[in-house]
Structures are given as structure tokens and as C-alpha cells.
Design brief:
This protein has about 725 residues and is mainly beta. Among the domains are: about 100 residues, no CATH class; about 90 residues, no CATH class; about 100 residues, no CATH class. The protein contains three helices and 43 strands. Strand 8 and strand 9 form a beta hairpin.
Amino acid sequence: MRLIIKNLVTVALLLLGTTGYATAQAQPDAPAVQTPPAVLVADDVEITTDRRLIARGNVEAFQGTTRLSAQAIEYNSDTGTLTITGPIVINDGAGIVILASQAELSEDLQDGLLKGARLVLHEQLQLASVQMNRVGGRYTQLYKTAATSCRVCENDPRPPLWQIRAKRVVHDREERQLYFDGAQLRVRNIPILYFPRLRLPDPTLARATGFLFPEIRSNSRLGTGLRIPYFIKLGDHRDLTLTPYLTGKTRTLEFRYRQAFKRGRIILQGAYSDDDLQPNDRRGYFFAAGEFALNRGYILEFDLESVSDDAYLNDYGFFGRDRLDSSIQVSRTRRDEYIKLSYVNFKSLRDDEDDDLLPSDVIDVLYERRFHPSLIGGEVRLSAAAHGHERPSNVNFDANGDGIVDGRDVLRFNFEAEWIRTYQLGGLQVQTDLGLAGDIIRVSDDITFDEDSGIAPKVGVTLRYPLVRRSKNGVRQFFEPLVQLSWVGGDGLNVPNEESTRVEFDEGNLLSLSRFPAPDRRERGWAVAYGGTWARIDPNGWTATLTAAQVLREEAQADFNDTSGLSGTTSDFLLAGKIELDGGFAMSGRTLFNESFDVAKAEIRGAWSNNQIYVGGSYIWISEDTDIDLPSPIGEVTFDGAYKIDRFWTANANWRYDLEEGRAATAGAGIAYSNECVRVGLSINRSFADSTTLEPSTTLGLSVSLRGFSVNTGDRVETRSCGKRAK
């Protein structure tokens, strides 16, 4: 029978708790900091005549958050030591567990010797040793140690998948570091690497200076080499990662610097290369990004991007970009107000684009405010915007013969006031929109245009009649027919189309009074938009939505190109929908087609997944349109998927195919193995790009990560079982 004796508790308080009380009494002027008293529980307890406390059978001792369990404990009050017979388990309540067969410890369990001991850190990493010493509660020294995060099964003669053997290991509890002397990395007990000295973080340390796991990478153009990241902790709020990448054809140093401030953060990253692809040039890139909270609710954001040459990012596989944009922006968002000031600089990496002829420098200013006047009801919206873009070229004529003046620069100002109110007439919803817009646009470095301005009054009325049907099984069906009658007055401005060259007709702008993406031009005259939306919502089954619409006009708009779907007096039909099935399948699509069912644009995206498989893909089609420099159609199919072979193995693949070129654009595949102690990934990627600056390339990658030396992120990790399948 389990015995908890009141006298025994008193003795435990006197014998095991004296150190803390004595310290407090020796310093009467110091704050009274007391060591928590110890409590001892056992099946059998004996106090000998020489004041030795002996507890036997299911012994448990508690002091603060530390808990000790053993078969027997003998306490010697003369020496202040505990002689413990195992099996012994010491849990400090902070993620450190010690297992041993025998131990001789101080009364506060902070110093002493343990034999046949194991140290378990954060339920991730275990270190088994012949002998263990505890010093001052901070240092734990282990001799003839094997460290691994792999599950080790009793009575299993097989060695763990990996382990680090060392003559001595010291665990610094305060610094949360592990120091290895004479360390040897073994895979299935086969020595792979030897380190005279090795330092690794314990699993509770989120950030520590040291090497990260390397990656082997083979590229058809750069050769085979090794990437070895080195992480440098510069403080609690900043760090630097340096990554040398060395092959027979390149010597590259990558870097990343991060810093968190009280009101923001920044990240700087880049690379510097000396390679054989361009042997006479020094190549590299530099990106910087940040975000800061300013006074009075303003947010500062910046993004700087620079590269030495157009092919560098593609050659090294850093980013799949063909244009760079550096920007800085200050904005503030409130419930009824929005303010933005931004500057953007563009740089093209495409073969067929000249930066001197592109609007490289762009400035935007926007102020929006809304009111809810009680006198007239509804909502009043006011906005003022300014935009300017400049080309580096100052040439004032059309050198290319394509209608674009080489050095054209544009500055515009827009002002707009709008009153919106909604009425409910039974089941009919009526929304009225009344507004006035003013535009001023100035064009320079272009002898064809100068300056123009105008006023555009506008009015719109939208009618909706939403219908809802509910079934007993919880299914709801929704149908909303709608029609909008609108008019925009004023004459079109005699200015070039610089900003609204790409127009999209979709559900988002169906009821807009102007469907141009920028206010440098506006729709004019009378127009009618009509259509409807149907939806089925089933919490336990399939859900779908479908929208169909069209726009009719009094007069055609000259700046709507053919593929926009809005050219002529009758627009293309817009058809868009989405369906989600209970089994994990989802698909969405959108298309524009005319009365002859000639398709201008179409896109379909879909995905299906379960516990084992994920499959996703898309199809995109855009017909030819010389008005937007598209002499031939664009057709593309993409696919990506993953298959979980079993609990530990996962395979993935991706593929992008150009239907017009009749060849693949990119393709890739990979396989990864992951369990409680290791993650190994093998990947292959092929880029088929071919131009004057880009060449096809193939990249192979191999990465190996040993788990147990990083903070547990909470992600699900499959653990191998001993005889049984782990749940």
C-alpha cells in the first residue's frame, strides 16, 4: 500500500529544503527568496538512528517543477547527498528528462554522478552515455555518448538510422548548446564524418550561430557543387546567413540579412558570383524589402531590386522573373479614408524590351474619402489622384514605326465625386449611382499630343431581384438576375493610351461605369449590362456558382481591343463558374465568347486531393490580338501533383506545356523521405527557355536535414514504431 506519512513530509522539508532557507536567513537585508520545499512519497520509509532517510518502492520526490522517480532513495544528512537506485527518471518540467540506472546526487538534484544515463531533450533528441555528471544544475557532462533523434527500440540489434558518437558531450542548459569532443557522424553505424570539435544547438533553441545543413546541387550549365549555409546570430532581433556555393564553374556567395525593429522589419538578400558563363564580368543581384509603422497610422513599405545582367536570376534559379520592380510606398487605411503615395521603377529582363523605351519611373498619389450624410442618405465618395510616368529616352518621334513615341512621358490628374444609395422595394433592390469626374492629362516628348482635359458626368441604376430557396436537408439555392442602365457624358480626351492597354471583362467590373483599368480614359455614352448569378450551397455535399453576363452599348469604344471581350457595341458573353465536391475536388473557370462561339479568352483551374494524393492543373487560352502586340495565340497547360507513397515517402511533379510552341516550358519532379529524425529530398528541374540571354538548363538537388537540433514547429511528423504501427 502507498504510504504518505506526515512526519516523513516534515523530515523531507527539513532535510531537503534547508539550503534555500539558510540562504535567506544569512542575508537578512536581501529579499526572501526561498527554495521550494521537497515532498517525498514511497511505499516504505525508514529513518535510521544516524539520521539517514531511506525510501523504498515506487519512490517519487518533488521539488518545484522537478520530479524524480526511482526504486529507492537514501539521504545522508551529514554529506547532503542522495544515493538513488534505478530505474531513475528525472524530469525538470522544462523539456529535459534524464534516465539512469544508478545515481549519487546533491540534495537539490543539481550536482552529482549518474551511471547508465540517458538525456532526452524536448522529446526530440536523446543522448545515451556510460556516465553522466551534473554540475551546478547548468552543465551536464556525458561520457562515451551516442546522440540521435531516431527512435531506438528495445531489444532491437539494428543501430539507429543516424547517430553522433562522441568521447564527451557537454550540455549547457543556460546557453542551450551541445558541445561534442571527438564526434563521429554515423549512418547505420558506418562512420561518415569526423569532427574534433562540434557545437550544435539543443532542440529548445530557436536561433544559434553555426552551419546549417548543406545541399548538393548539380546544374547542366554551372556544374555540380555544394551549398553550405552559415547562420550568424547578431542579437535577439537580427541575423545574417552566408551561403557559399562552389562548383567547377562558379564561385558564388549568397547572403541574407534580417532585422526586426520595434515598429517594423527589413530583409536584405543577394548574391555575388564569379563564373565561367560570363568570365569577364562580376555577376550578382541585390533585393531589399521592409515595412515600418509610422506615426498617425501611416505604413512605409519599400522593395528594392537590382541585378547585374538579364540572365543571372535564371542561370542560378533564384527567381522566375522577367521584370524587376523597385518601389517605395507610404499609405494609411482607415474606415472612411485611404491615402497612398508610391514610386515604382521598372527594369525589364526580356530580350525584346528596351528599358529606355519603357515607362520606367512611375509616381502615384491617391486620396479617397467617404461620407454617410444623414440628410440625403446613402454614401458619398470623393477621390483625387495624380499619376506620372517617364521614359529615360528623350527622342520625340516614332523610331520603331509601331505608333509608340520613344520618349513619351505622361502626367495626369483625376478628381471624382460619387453618390451611391440603395433602395429596397419589396424583393427588388435598386441602387443608384450619380457622379462627376474631371481629368487633366499632359503629354510631353511627343509632338503628336500635348494636353487635354475634360469633365465626365455619370449616372447608373442597377436592379437586382435575389431569390433564395431552402431545402429540408440544409441545401440552399440562390438566383439573382440583374440589369444596369448607365450613362457617362463628356468627350474622350485626345491623349495616347498609355495605361489601359490591357482590359479584362470579368465579374469584378461587370457593373462598373468604366471598365478601363486606369482613369486615363473612360467609357462614354449609354450602356446596358445584364446577367445573373446562380449558386447552390450544401454544407454536406457539392457547392457551385455560375455567372453569365453581357454588355450592350449605344456606341463602340475605340480603345477596347478584341481580346478584352468589350469591343464593338455588343460585348462577348461572359461565363464564369466554380464547383466544389465533397470528395476534395474543386474547379473554377472563366471564358469570353461571341455569338459565333469564337473564344477570345478562357481559363480553367482545378485541383483534387485526399489524404494520399494531390493533383492540380490549369488551362489558359488567349487568341491573337495585334492591338496588344500579340501576333499569335497563347495557350498553356500546367500540372502539379504530389503522391504520399506511405507514411514516410512523398513524390511530387510539376509540368508547364506551351501549346502554341508545341513543347514543354518547364518540368520538374522530386521525392522526399521524412521521419522523426531525418528528411532527405531529391529533385530535378528542367527549364526549356531559349533566347539570346537564356539557355535551357537542368538542375539536380539533394538535401539532407537531421531533425532534433531545431525547435519543434508543430508540423506533423511520422514516427517509426517498435513492433506496432504508430498512430
